[in-house]
Design goal:
Strand content: 15-25%
Distance between the termini: 45 Å
Oligomer: single chain
Largest sheet: 7 strands, mixed, barrel
Radius of gyration: 24 Å
Helix content: 25-40%
Number of strands: 27
Strand order of the largest sheet: 21-22-23-24-27-26-25
Structural class: alpha/beta
């Protein structure tokens, strides 16, 4: 049987189920990735489950999100994470070492392996010939403990790249083109696999840019071949022995096929406030900006910064413009300094920030109210920048640098200069100084976890009741993101290890009264929410499921879910339902009470059942897509309860 790369990766890691599209499969996970905005909860979950030692080939904890230390909270949690990695046998990437995705790519990623991360942009490492996927923290904790990752067998979407990129057009414009064609739901239930002659001009880091923003299409993952370019990249990182060739069989087919002719692409931009709102830069040229921002995991490569430096070299950015440079790893920053690119940027008026996620997650560099921000980041969901009333455009480094010079959105092709040709350093820096290796097991067993005053254990959560009368506290529209469900940023993320505190921010962008009403509902049996299409798109943060659950959320009834958030709801015992008839969405309103009777029996006996609206002559047909395994999780009130019960049974034998 002829296989594409995705099928080869899945087949070689399949431990449960069959490779039939839409059916649940279990995959062995070789590597995991956690970051500090999600990793604290993962470490608490490992402790709660009694895990002794990571069972993966390599697991790494990165500190890249919460690196602004305005008080003790972040610093204390970093000490907790450091102690937890020493205790459980993980790598620990210290603050300032860089963003998890490019650092993992440089130091640990291996072709042919699986990678699961508690960050939705973990898929970026698919550029290395890996099956790399984002997930909620509980799924990652289980993978660290040696458990399989369960997903629905995806369709494989083959994208054939032909032609050659014109000057002033780069990798970011390739993924923008796919978003322009298919919007933010286009990749749901699919792995995107790139192939074709157009790959030859794309470096490993260019592929990282494209794979990273596969998350914005809702894709399960993005896969590139492991070819001579990946071998070159690993060799310059001093890891050529980790390379294997991994390509599709000649004649292999795809469930869906599409072609992008690179020669036909133009500079593209995503307008506020969705990565799918893509138009040519020329269409919005002349729009005034306040900020131009280069960096993040969506443009983390040496050339991404170097090309911006060459564009502004010997010039000065426009008056009133904040030109923000967000380095993505210490290795890369060192090389940019050696080649004088940082000097060019600073002399032009740029502001240099520490290596980390920073403004991408609203952790600093927030724009002024009512002003336009131009960013090379992967997302522009409302409020994600740290400014609630923000107006964020997404673009390539070329467009960001050109616009910084003019003070308005500028098509870089209109600059009166030749396109800079960037040459990679001949001997790039290899720096493992801030990447601590796992301790030997005997030494690790002696380590005690350090817990600062801001760390609170997860409260007990009850099993699913058989009878529920649930008031609808919120009715929302399409494409509600996890940033809207539970914001990131410097105000919120320091409480990621304190569920009672972080819950106070739940849904605040949508309805500031939700927290108070949610707390009141806990006493009366909980509540429900209603949503449209693609509910829960964006970040993998499990707090977006965990905080509403803490506030009494029992049922989410929507038109359809984003993959990771749907899984997170299941993990914490929130029943995710979809409308059988989408027009029923219009029949129910916020404040209505949903009556669910004989619920435990119904979700075990079939997928469809009826929900009545109390006091109204309305019946809603709802359905779930849970596997038998997930039904058991829901009945127990979440995965923590189920795992505890299993461990208790094992210990009593």
């Amino acid at each position: 049987m002829l296989l594409n790369i995705t099928e080869k990766l899945i087949k070689s890691h399949l431990v449960a189920g069959e490779m039939v599209s839409g059916k649940e499969i279990g995959l062995k996970i070789d590597q995991t990735l956690t970051q500090d905005a999600t990793g604290t909860m993962v470490m608490l979950e490992l402790e709660a489950m009694g895990v002794e030692r990571a069972q993966t080939e390599a697991s790494a904890q990165y500190v890249d999100h919460n690196i602004i230390q305005v008080d003790n909270k972040n610093a204390d949690d970093h000490l907790f994470l450091q102690s937890a990695t020493r205790r459980f046998g993980l790598y620990y990437s210290r603050p300032g070492n860089g963003v998890s995705h490019p650092v993992h790519m440089q130091r640990l990623a291996k072709p042919g392996k699986t990678l699961l991360g508690s960050d939705s942009h973990t898929c970026a490492n698919g550029c290395m010939g890996m099956l790399a996927m984002g997930a909620g923290g509980m799924d990652v904790a289980l993978a660290i403990a040696g458990e399989p990752m369960y997903i629905k067998m995806p369709k494989v979407w083959g994208i054939k790249l032909t032609g050659k990129l014109p000057d002033w057009v780069s990798a970011k414009d390739i993924i923008f083109e796919l978003l322009r064609r298919h919007d933010v739901k286009g990749g749901v239930g699919k792995v995107i696999e790139y192939y074709g002659p157009g790959l030859e001009q794309l470096s490993a880091m260019d592929r990282h840019v494209i794979a990273n923003m596969g998350a914005e299409l809702g894709a399960t993952g993005t896969v590139f071949p492991s070819d001579e370019e990946i071998r070159r990249f690993l060799k310059e990182q001093g890891r050529e022995e980790d390379w294997i060739e991994l390509t599709a069989d000649t004649g292999a087919t795809y469930d869906i096929e599409e072609e992008i002719n690179l020669s036909e692409l133009v500079p593209l931009i995503a307008k506020p406030s969705s990565p799918g709102n893509v138009v040519p830069v020329s269409e919005v040229a002349g729009t005034p900006i306040y900020q131009s921002y280069v960096g993040s995991s969506a443009n983390p490569g040496y050339r991404d910064f170097a090309v911006a430096a060459e564009i502004v070299k010997g010039k000065t950015v426009a008056k009133g413009i904040s030109f923000d440079i967000n380095p993505t790893s210490r290795q890369m920053l060192t090389d940019l300094v050696k080649e004088s690119h940082i000097a060019s940027l600073l002399q032009a008026g740029a502001r240099l920030h520490q290596a980390g996620c920073n403004g991408c997650i609203g952790m600093g560099q927030a724009p002024a109210t009512g002003r336009n921000s131009l960013r090379t980041t992967p997302r522009n969901f409302p409020g994600r920048s740290g400014t609630q009333e923000d107006s964020v455009y997404l673009c390539s480094p070329e467009t960001a640098a050109a616009s910084a010079l003019t003070g308005q959105i500028t098509d870089p092709r209109t600059l009166n200069m030749p396109y800079p040709k960037i040459k990679e350093p001949e001997n790039p820096t290899i720096d493992t100084t801030l990447l601590d290796e796992p301790l030997p097991y005997e030494e690790a067993k002696k380590v005690e976890l350090y817990k600062g005053p801001n760390i609170a254990s997860i409260p007990p959560m009850d099993a699913l009741p058989d009878e529920l009368d649930l008031p609808i506290l919120l009715k929302m529209g399409d494409n509600i993101s996890t940033d809207e469900i539970l914001a990131g940023g410097a105000r919120v993320l320091p409480y990621r290890s304190n569920l009672p505190e972080i819950s106070k921010f739940a849904f605040e962008i949508i309805d500031k009264t939700y927290y108070t009403r949610g707390m009141a509902s806990v006493v009366t049996g909980g509540h429900a929410i209603i949503g449209g299409f693609n509910y829960g798109q964006g970040s993998s943060r499990e707090h977006a499921a965990l905080a509403p659950r803490f506030l009494g959320l029992r049922v989410a009834l929507v038109k359809d879910f984003a993959r990771i958030h749907w899984q997170n709801l299941v993990n914490f015992g929130v029943l995710p339902l979809t409308f059988v008839n989408e027009e029923d969405y219009d029949q129910i309103e916020q404040g209505d009470i949903l009556q669910l009777n004989d619920l435990r029996n119904k979700i075990q006996q079939g997928n469809k059942f009826t929900i009545n609206v109390k006091g109204k002559n309305i019946s809603i047909q709802a359905t779930h897509s849970l596997s038998e395994r997930q039904v058991e999780v829901i009945l127990h009130g979440g995965l923590i309860n189920l795992v505890k019960e299993r461990l208790k049974k094992v210990s009593s034998i």
